[in-house]
Amino acid sequence: MSQYPRLEYSMEDVRAAGKSLAGPVSFTPQNNAVAVEIFSIANSWRDSHIYPMRSIRASVRIAMRQAYIRGDMAARPKRMSSIRRKLADTTIRLDQMQDLGGCRAILNDIDGVNRLVERVRERSQHCIRKEWNYIQNPKGDGYRSHHLSMEFTPARKEDESFAGRRIELQLRTRLQHSWATAIEAVSLYRNQDLKHHKADGDWLRLFELASAEFAQVERSPLPTGVPDQAERVKELKDLNARLGAVSMLENIKAATHFAENFTHDRGRYYLLRYRPDHTVKIETYTGTFSATSALELAERAIEAGESQDKVVLVEVDKIDKLVSTYPNYFGDVSLFIRNLQLACGGKSGIEYTVAPQEVVRPREVQQPDYGALRRRYTRWIEPRR
Fold it and tell me: What is the pLDDT of residue 254?
């Protein structure tokens, strides 16, 4: 287990660091060493959730295959900015957070979500501490997903130091995922926080009404406080016209682009950097320690005011799944746009579709090196532009 980080501090240190992170932490010359220590403790605690997160993700992936449930899976440690927001806005302590590590299954339809929930309940070796069924009971803002707080239960003696780590498992349909990630994409693009209701009220209402339309497509309960469909469609159409919502969402697709130095290297972890100019830079890492160290340095620069990037460290099965699992960072809001347009036209949405997606621009056609055929191993390198 040496390839996975373990907690290097006491739980008293973790709780103290959490209290500090709930307030301002300055990286002034006089306070720099203290600030670095606070973040080092918090990062060590968060990093100790990586192995439990991977284990739970692997077990859910196996369950999907055994039950022939189609979908994608991803995992990520919670962003430090989100950790600090929760510490500041709630009474929860850092050592009590149940989502420092998160796994997400994005399934084709409601049936897949329901079957996977039952399979996890019946067969998971890990303890389910609590469930939040935001599909049967949507949040007031329209958010829909099924959350389970999983407590890691070690199967081997050498894993016992990770016992009790809490990982949040989110199970959602692709339609629900398109809604949730469209909110985050708009937030990134407009530099607002729709997810936490700190944004234009018209945009929040548009997403609330869109969620109701999506819920109706999936034959699921609607969020409370929405009118009947005729009134809903009329209001949604008016909001779309007033905000120019579809046009702006199309602009998000056009404005977001990939950094020129992105390569086809495959790794286990991917550090996504969303920059103020809407450029996405992707860094690949094969080792857990190198990945978490890169995340820590990037977040420290953000906290110190040296960077305006938005960063997240993710783990996916294949590199080409980055867009489908984290479309908000790539401006890919196609499925949401299509369903919003259908809803505004009073038509039923589509429960699932596969839109053609590319992680990077197509490679240029190159003349083959026929001499390379004599060698056993070859590798094509994409030329820099």
Answer: 84
DSSP state of 330: G
For the chain, give every domain's residue range.
11-351
- The CATH superfamily assigned to 11-351 is Beta Polymerase, domain 2 (3.30.460.10)
Three-class secondary structure of residue 92 per DSSP:
coil
Enter the tokens of residue 117.
Answer: 């929930």
Within the chain, where are the H helices?
11-21, 32-47, 50-66, 80-89, 110-123, 174-190, 201-217, 229-243, 245-255, 288-303, 322-325, 334-344
Residues in the chain: 385
Q: Report the C-alpha gap between 130 and 122 in whole angstroms.
A: 15
147: Cα separation from own chain's centroid:
14
pTM of the model: 0.87
Residue type, 92: I
Cα 35 → chain centroid? 27
Reading the block at residue 16, the tokens are: 């103290």
DSSP state of 206: H
Angstrom distance (rounded) from CA 194 to CA 176:
16
Q: Reduced to 3 DSSP states, what percent helix, strand and coil does the chain have, rounded to the nearest 5?
A: 50, 15, 35
pLDDT along the chain (385 residues), means of 10: 86 98 91 95 98 96 95 96 96 96 96 97 94 97 97 94 97 96 92 83 95 95 93 95 94 75 67 90 92 96 94 88 87 92 86 48 41 39 40
Closest-CA residue to 133 (of 151, 122, 118) = 118
